[in-house]
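Hey forum,

I'm writing up a methods section and want to include a predicted complex as supplementary material. The small molecule is adenosine-5'-triphosphate. I've pasted the protein sequence and the SMILES. Can someone with a working setup run it? I'll credit the forum in the acknowledgements.
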Amino acid sequence: MKYNRILLKLSGESLAGEKRNGIDEIRLEEYARQIKEAVAMGVQIGIVIGGGNIFRGLSGSKKGFDRVKGDQMGMLATVINSLALSSALSAIGQKNRVFTSIRMEPVGELYSKWKAIESMQNGEVAIISGGTGNPFFTTDTASALRAIEIEADAMLKGTRVDGVYTADPEKDPSATRFDTISFDEVYNRGLQVMDLTATTMCKENGLPIVVFDMDRYGNLLKLLSGENVGTLVHV
Ligand SMILES: Nc1ncnc2c1ncn2[C@@H]1O[C@H](COP(=O)(O)OP(=O)(O)OP(=O)(O)O)[C@@H](O)[C@H]1O
Ligand SMILES: O=c1ccn([C@@H]2O[C@H](COP(=O)(O)O)[C@@H](O)[C@H]2O)c(=O)[nH]1
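Reply by user p_vandermeer:
Happy to help. Structure tokens for the complex are below, copy them as they are.
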């Protein structure tokens, strides 16, 4: 197995499937099944989910919302997605625990590194919701932060593109994909597959990132089995 412990970042937008907003039950179940299979392989999994399918503070502020309140709405959106994933995992018999970065029992348990590690060691999926708990950040940064805290071997960024490209592949059809790329090259080329705060945290803490297409069923297991899936971003 390639990694013993991972932090899997799931895209909120991808969770909406074809709907573009809200939660697509089929996509949710596909994610849950892949995660259960990965746990069965013996991988310890922490998860951070985005909230872009429900609300983003920056888009809200362009429509007149206060930025801090908008970001708080966005963080709550990640809690909603996390509860949905928790429910889908429980429905297929996968033990899991929802942690929140902001105190809100009984919705979830207040996050701490040690509780999350203990949960993973007990075979539970640790779903870490609520972003960093602070406005002006993203769930990519929350993923980097939590991955480093829980001492993950890698951060796997599951998204709707199959890796890092020379340009945004959704805008530039001539863009080509990297198998591997260094953090320095990501900066030098100005690639925007993750925000710079997240990228910098990973680089400074020697945490590799794999960007891969989580919406293609089976990719997570392939990646964990050592197959060449996605793009490895390395120090
Ligand atoms: N150089 C690049 N290589 C690959 N993807 C890129 C690149 N530049 C921009 N992107 C875009 O980044 C997107 C992936 O980012 P991400 O998964 O964070 O989406 P998101 O919508 O921010 O997720 P969330 O809903 O969780 O906030 C891709 O859909 C792709 O269009
Ligand atoms: O640490 C954080 C994480 C997220 N937010 C807010 O939540 C939304 C949704 O997260 P995405 O990463 O965009 O999916 C984000 O736009 C922020 O508004 C935050 O404030 N702090």
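Some notes you might quote in the supplement: The first strand starts at residue 5 and ends at 10. Residues 67-91 form the longest helix (25 residues).
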